[in-house]
Amino acid sequence: MSVTQTEFFPALRLDNHHIALQEGEHTWRYSSVHQRIDQFASGLLGNSKDLEEERIAFFMPASLDYVTTLLGVWRAGGIAVPLNIAAAIPELEHALSCAGVTRLVVSGDVDDPSLVLLNALCKSLNVQVISVSSLLALQILPMPVLTPERRAMILFTSGTTNKPKGVVSTHKNIRAQITTLLKAWEWQEEDSIPLFLPLHHIHGIINVLCCGLWMGARVSLFAKFDMETILEEVIQDHYTVFMAVPTIYVKIIQHLETLDADKREAICNGFRKMRLNISGSAACPVKLYQQWQQLTGQTLLERYGMTEIGMGISNPYNGERRAGAVGIPLPGVDAALFDDAGNVIDAEDTPGEIRIRGNNVFLEYWNNPKATEESFKDGWFCTGDVAIRESGYFRIMGRSSVDIIKSGGYKLSALEIEGTLLTHEKISECAVIGVEDDTWGEAVTAFVVLKPGQLLSYGELKSWCESRMSPYKIPKTLRVMESLPRNAMGKVMKPELKKL
Ligand code: MCA
Ligand code: AMP
């Protein structure tokens, strides 16, 4: 079986005049988006018949250009590498060199002053920087026919190692990740959804953008989470579906508290009329679920996913959406709990590691066979998340590693942040942990031991971090210590730090 153009994003056709994308005042129909994607793919192909898994990175916010690039790279047989537009230069360097990127696509002018550092980096790595508009060919070429096993996308995810790993998904994986959600959440062509999540992660790319476009629905694009504009559109009944991380629901509730009663009611009413509100990427506290229900009448549908698997487990669209639980395996996904000895746990209320099987599960970590091998056991992908099953529903209990932090939906590696902090000239030792936080879920907290005679303020550390890591990784709190608590093996005892 091979992926032909009609099976892949079936709504993208010249005869489909339904609105696909909205960006501010502008709207684009499926027919014209389809045409633009083919023009762009033809420009990328140039004289070749197939990009043969060339890694093409792109650095741009949610926009028509983003959609053109992602789908154009796929059409032409390349591997899409969407970059984090908030990333610092060292992080971009890691992504570009790890994935062996050869071309980087930007929206607008390649000589834009905001791209000076990125251009210099690409020059040093021999990566060609090109704009979307320069690739829109006049003549559309025949597109390659792709087998489902072909690699399609590399997304970077933090693990317990120092540097993020490149998660490779194939066309088969992406199709499975999309189609299971279309079915489970009853996507409809009449749906309309705002997209304000970052577009270098599954949540924004697959759950919102790709599901919406595959179904033929309308996706409204925002370069960032522009709460006031989005809420105005909620009041005007623009949307039928809303998907966000718990932090966004917290921020909306905090904002509602600052408004007068009429305005608050108008917004809550807008949410009440939608057919579905979903929360995921991090645990949705029961208190948040209840508050949202009281305010909007919406019962949040919580689901569980991971970059390596797309979505795995979800509360049902029809049926009980249980607070604090993530539900049951999605159609086509096998999910089971395993004990430390590697046996499946059938009993209820017994904690075990979630392991996942199915066409949704990624192929490999790019160029890292060791990490790939270590993450699979007997064909199951080991998530590192611990859960129990209660009356059939999975409830996440936490993670097996203290070195993974979830802040505002982003998965962060404590070791990666520590690795950067240790390059500060005043820091001799450090440990990073996530501390429970009402807004962020977990807030990054750094404990440091300074070199003799040194002083370090939080403000000084924060501005030092700004050019070295994405803003959301920067510690929210700094604690200067005489020494770090260590066990007999010399390892820092992070649970002791959490108690502080
Ligand atoms: C922003 N800030 C943060 C975060 N985001 N700090 C900690 N954690 C964060 N996540 C900081 C900024 O550095 C800045 O700090 C201040 O907050 C305001 O920044 P701003 O950009 O204005 O904030 P915002 O627009 O309100 O952003 C919050 C956000 C954003 C919208 C919740 O973090 C976000 O889009 N999160 C979603 C991430 C996501 O899509 N994850 C899915 C991963 P200062 O003021 O000090 O400068 S995929 C996944 O997890 C799996 C597959 C799954 O299951 O979905
Ligand atoms: P990422 O690596 O960014 O794809 O993040 C995936 C991780 O997010 C999972 O391994 C979980 O730890 C966490 N996660 C996603 N959804 C949920 C949820 N509904 N409840 C708790 N944790 C979640």
Summarize this entry quickly.
Helix content is 30%, strand content 27%. It is an alpha/beta fold.
Helix and strand topology:
Elements: E1 19-23, E2 26-29, H1 30-45, E3 55-59, H2 64-75, E4 79-82, H3 89-99, E5 103-106, H4 116-125, E6 128-131, E7 151-157, E8 165-170, H5 171-184, E9 192-195, H6 202-215, E10 218-221, H7 227-235, E11 241-244, H8 246-256, H9 261-272, E12 276-279, H10 286-296, E13 301-306, E14 310-314, E15 328-329, E16 334-338, E17 352-357, E18 364-365, H11 369-375, E19 376-377, E20 380-390, E21 393-399, E22 404-407, E23 410-413, H12 414-421, E24 427-437, E25 441-450, H13 458-466, E26 477-481, H14 494-499
Parallel strand pairs: 1-10, 3-4, 3-5, 5-6, 9-10, 11-12, 12-13, 25-26
Antiparallel strand pairs: 1-2, 7-8, 8-18, 13-14, 14-15, 16-17, 17-20, 19-20, 20-21, 22-23, 24-25
Residues 157, 202, 280-283, 302, 304-307, 326, 383, 385, 396, 399, 406, 411 line the site of adenosine monophosphate (AMP).
How would you characterize the largest beta sheet?
A: 5 strands, mixed
How large, in whole angstroms, is the Cα Rg?
23 Å
Strand content: 25-35%
- Bound compounds: methylmalonyl-coenzyme A, adenosine monophosphate
Supply the CATH architecture of the domain at 19-147. 3-Layer(aba) Sandwich
Which regions have little confidence, pLDDT < 50, spanning 5+ residues?
none
Number of strands: 26
General form: globular
CATH level 3 topology of the domain at 19-147: Rossmann fold
| Overall pLDDT level | 96
Distance between the termini: 57 Å
Please report the first level of CATH classification, the CATH class of the domain at 19-147: Alpha Beta
Helix and strand composition category: alpha/beta
Total number of helical segments? 14
Q: How much helical structure, as a percent, in the residues?
A: 25-40%
Sheet with the most strands: spatial strand order: 11-12-13-14-15
